[in-house]
Amino acid sequence: MYKETNEEERVLLAQATAGDKKSLETILTGIQDMVFNLSLRMLGSFADAEDAAQEILLKVITHLSSFRGESAFSTWVFRIAVNHLKNYKKHMFASHPLSFEFYGNDIETADMANIPDLSQDVERSVLAEELKMSCTNVMLQCLDPESRCIFILGTMFRVDSRIAGDILDITPEAYRQRLSRIRKKMADFLGQYCGEYGNGRCRCSDRIDYAIQNHRLQPAQLDYTAASEISGQVISQVKEAMEEIDDLSQQFAFCKTYQTPEHLKQLIKDFLASAPAAVVKNS
Predict the structure, then answer these.
(1) Model confidence over 102-156: pLDDT tens digits?
(2) DSSP code, position 194
(3) What's the rounded Cα separation, in Å, for the pair 216 and 139?
(4) Could you tell me the pTM of the whole model?
(5) 8 Å CB contact between 252 and 165
């Protein structure tokens, strides 16, 4: 993903910039999963990630002619995505920021007594898995946007420190140091509170009805368990990268990658079908 732009990709980019929609669609297909997963981890929900990913992909389309090949194309796309997401204000957590203190206090003091069964006939094991994936993703919102981005780039995408530093406009050394500190902070929190990935007493299976009651889990809309994961090879590469850094792979096993939702794919296809070639060619 992070190798220099190859000749085939250069040809596609040149054709897309000249207005060839088929080449542009091929390029977008190659980056849409990367953009969607970065958006999902940065923003915390599927709905917000779809909206932001669409905006980012449209930015890529309309700024494609400005790509000069001075870095790998994927690095250029990451830079656009990161800058967009770090300043994104339309997601649900923008006006309701979280903190590790809030998260920990909720785990310690939640009143789960006398809550009726709210599972709506959905298997509780399925709801527990959905809650686990949702909870650990939302937990990333406890980090400030740049720290969250550093964690995601280093943990999920295995971005080289030189490239990550270039994307974030910091030195590679600063990136490595901050990544190490952030990963330890995340691992310490999981170790203290989470019974799924650490030694804490919080178990998703025990919090299903509490989560539904507080609108954190919707039995009728199970985004994570309904989503298709990307091939095991990608997951394996991420796991290896985590072990190389600090052997925290088990704590960060929630960092799965998902295929772009069909709804978003269709939106982009519809845009390409309706937009004039000049949108790219003359942008």
Answers:
(1) 999 999 999 998 999 999 999 999 999 999 999 989 999 999 999 999 999 988 8
(2) B
(3) 12
(4) 0.87
(5) no
| 216 DSSP 8-state letter | S
Give yes or no for residue 3 having a pLDDT over 60: no
Q: What is the largest CA-CA distance in the chain?
A: 64
Q: With cut-offs at 50, 70 and 90, classify the pLDDT of residue 5.
A: low
On whether the CB atoms of residues 199 and 206 are closer than 8 A, the answer is no
Nearest-angstrom CA–CA distance, 149 and 154: 8
Give exposure, 55-75, as e/b (b: 16+ Cβ within 10 Å): bbbbbbbeebeebeeebbbbb
In sequence order, which residues have a C-beta less than 8 Å from that of residue 32 and are 6 or more positions away?
A: 53, 57, 260, 264, 265, 268
Spatial separation of the C-alpha atoms in residues 168 and 123, rounded to whole Å:
42
Q: Which residue has the tokens 């940065």?
A: 42
- φ and ψ of 229, to 5 deg: -80, 150
Residues recorded for the chain: 283
Query: What pLDDT digit, counting tens, does each position of 245-260 carry?
Result: 445 544 566 678 889 9
Number of Cβ atoms within 10 Å of the Cβ of 3: 8
Residue 10 neighbours by CB under 8 Å, 6+ apart:
69
- Please check whether residue 91 is in contact with residue 45, taking contact to mean a CB–CB distance below 8 angstroms: yes
